[in-house]
Design goal:
The chain contains five helices and four strands. By secondary structure, the chain is an alpha/beta fold. A four-stranded parallel beta sheet has the order 2-1-3-4, sandwiched between helices. The longest helix has 12 residues. The protein is globular and about 35 Å long.
């Protein structure tokens, strides 16, 4: 499984200018459960197909030096998306794991 960043790392990155939360789940999953405590952007990325993320990345996140905090259901797709964004030149990409694992954000909202 992909390495998941700690809550402390995610919350520190969130404080940096231009930080973006990115949900890489599909539309149906997002409709069923979304991140309520923070605004986020969405671009689908699966373990074998990240073409949507690849085509939308620079539109959704124009500053490649700003932190991108990625999440999905469990952290696996977020790990794949992290690899894709790093290959595209994004400098600070974090895997926050699954949306259910991010309840700590509502405590700091």
């Amino acid at each position: 499984m992909a390495s998941i960043n700690t809550p402390e790392e995610v919350m520190a990155a969130e404080q940096e200018p231009g930080a973006v939360f990115l949900d890489v789940r599909g539309e149906d999953e997002v409709k069923a459960e979304s991140l309520q405590s923070r605004p986020y952007k969405q671009a689908k990325c699966s373990l074998d197909d990240c073409s949507e993320l690849m085509s939308k990345a620079e539109t959704l996140m124009s500053d490649k030096n700003a932190p991108v905090i990625i999440f999905c259901r469990s952290g696996r797709r977020a790990g794949k998306a992290k690899e894709v964004l790093e290959q595209k030149g994004y400098k600070k990409v974090l895997n926050a794991g699954g949306v259910k694992d991010m309840s700590y954000l509502s405590q700091s909202a």
